[in-house]
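Tutorial handout. Part one gives the primary structure; part two gives the three-dimensional structure as tokens.
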Amino acid sequence: MKDKIFIFEYISGGGLNKVNIPTSLFCEGFSMLRSIIADFKTLGFEISTLLDLRVSFLSKFLQADVIRNVSPYENYIKAFKKLMKACKYVFIIAPETSNILYELTDLVKKYSKKILSTNLYGIQNATSKIITYNLFKDRGILTPKTYRIPYKEDYLDNDFIFQKTKTLKYPIVIKPEDGVGAESTHYFERESQLTNFLSNYKMNSKNRSNYILQEYIKGQDFSISLIRNQNLNEIPIVMGVNSQDIMIKGSRFEYFGGYTPLENYNEIIKELYILLKKINLLKIEGYFGIDIIRKYDNSFSCIEINPRLTTSYIGLRNVVNVNCAEIIFNSRFKSLYNPEIKFLHHSRFTRLDFFYKDFENMEKYYEEVMPKLIKLIPEFVTPPISLDNSRNFSCFIATKSNNSLSSKIRMNEIISHMKNLNFNISIPRTVKLS
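Part two.
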């Protein structure tokens, strides 16, 4: 009899069933869901998952045995509980924002199910960027200076912000203390930009987030993907070292993906192991990531810990010599499990946004155009979709090539194919942050 696992991804799985789903966020979420379901399926699990009813047409891309659609009229938590109760194992992909990830994981723990995603301790301590900042600082790890911004009534405290920016100097960053990636992150190069932002920014006092003010660190954005074996008193297994493509549009950060492995990853991994020993992450279990900037003097500045599966998994699974889901599972149940990770390939994983010129109606697109695209471009993890019935589409692609150059060549071929099918690729005309 097969072991049953419930795999839940918040954005595509009904967590936003009562509001409009941003297509860009959906593409990342669905791609992670599709990828990890495929990896657990290879291990022989019987898999259950949830899928927002509005995207039920994508169910054919999921190798799940049970796919339960969540309608706009129901509470997704009820559907979550029903599938979770029927399974022995649970894996959750959800944002830390508003304690969503923590509360879902705590719910699973209360039902005595085996959690394969990050444990409660890791979520609780990594969700708060202030706690993470203090952890890095106490361990002597380089990290950007960070301050929690107080409120005055319904407004962020401008006096506090302007006082601290004199210490930090521009550019600076303002972002939610429990935010995910580049979400709601604002970047300011000069005081006039900050003044304009604050003059137009007001929070609802009944439903407001904590925000932080942070020093901006210049350098190369990258992340490390980690798995920690709870039974070994050791530093985590480094699964991957991944570049991050982070852009700025106006004052907003936007994440598009990246590539893996990073150039000179063997050298970097040696340096990272020294860093990880200093951080001491022994109480965090499961798969998680750390965002890092390599400064121009080659020193590392740790930005934050992500206590969940991250987007880089989509590319990472294409390049290593092992099944990533198998490592996640065995790290929980094999006391002496410490696999040797080898990078055999290169993957560029990225979201592409584009305008589709020949749009007539969605039904015709999904029936006629999408099958042609998928046959032509098997690298689609999330095929081109539009969730607002407009001509603006997004997709997520992950290549699998021999090296960085061949990944770039293949990505250019994909863009060329789509242009030939009258897709106008929206390559962002933005300033790259690293």
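Part three, for discussion. The longest strand covers residues 237-249. Residues 429-434 have pLDDT under 50 and may be disordered.
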